[in-house]
Amino acid sequence: MTGEEFGKIFHSFEHTAFRLEVRDRYDADYENESLRKFLAREKDDLPWMQDWLAMIRDAAFEGRRFTRVRVVSLPLTDYSRFGVWCAQFTNGAGEEIRYLTRERAAAEHLPDHDYWLFDSRKLVRMHFDDSDAFLGGEVVEDVNEVVQHNYWRDTAWHHAIRRDDFATEQHLGFV
Question: Is this structure's pTM higher than 0.70?
Answer without folding.
Answer: yes
